[in-house]
Amino acid sequence: VVAWQELVVGAEAGGLRVVEVAVEEGDRVRQGQLLARLEDSVLAAQRDAAEAGVREAEAALRVAQQDLVRSLELSRGQIAARQTLEQREAAERQAVARLAASRARRDEAAARLAQTRIVAPTDGTVSRRTALLGTVVPAGQEMARLIRDDRLELDARVPELDLAAVAPGQRVRVVH
User: Fold this and answer.
1) Taking the alpha carbons of 59, 61, 67, 73 in that order, is the dihedral positive or negative?
2) What is the distance of C-alpha 134 from the center of its chain?
3) Contacts of 5 (CB under 8 A, 6+ apart)
4) Disulfide-capable partner of 71 in 44, 53, 88, 159 (CB 3.0 to 4.6 Å)?
5) Distance CA 133, CA 143 (A)
6) Considering only CA atoms, which of 153, 156, 147 is closest in space to residue 5?
7) 85 CB contacts (<8 Å, ≥6 apart)?
8) Across all residues in the chain, what is the average pLDDT?
9) What is the pLDDT of residue 80?
10) How far apart are CA 29 and CA 117, in angstroms?
11) How does pLDDT run across 7-30, given as a tens digit for each residue?
């Protein structure tokens, strides 16, 4: 009797220390349940710095947009030079691009932080737990194995000479 599907659950983030192991072999788990947690303080700080960068870029965009509006108003009255208006339009486009880049860095930092939580991808039973408290794990390191949906199947071997006597739907007796 073997697992229908045995899922290997690994660490996506590498170079981080295991600070919590939440399961043991034989434990039943639900999809999304915490299996292990990696040290996240550095990644949390990076996420916070990236969030501050987004707020800074948003403020710079507001200033650029206000400058552009003033230049547009002045150019209508022929008070501002066309060159100044074009510079302000370019500054506004640059601010939009910087904001997009800042948001991308923030989202990347948040995704990396989320990788410190190793969770069950599906319901099942822990068939093997390899995560050890205090271990620094490389990316891809196996943390646990799960029997998907607790489904087992019989892996039977029939000798080649007996295959002719086997028919679909035939009753069998399994001996150990």
Assistant:
1) negative
2) 22
3) 147, 148, 149, 151
4) 88
5) 11
6) 147
7) 68, 71, 72, 75
8) 91
9) 67
10) 15
11) 999 999 989 999 999 999 999 999
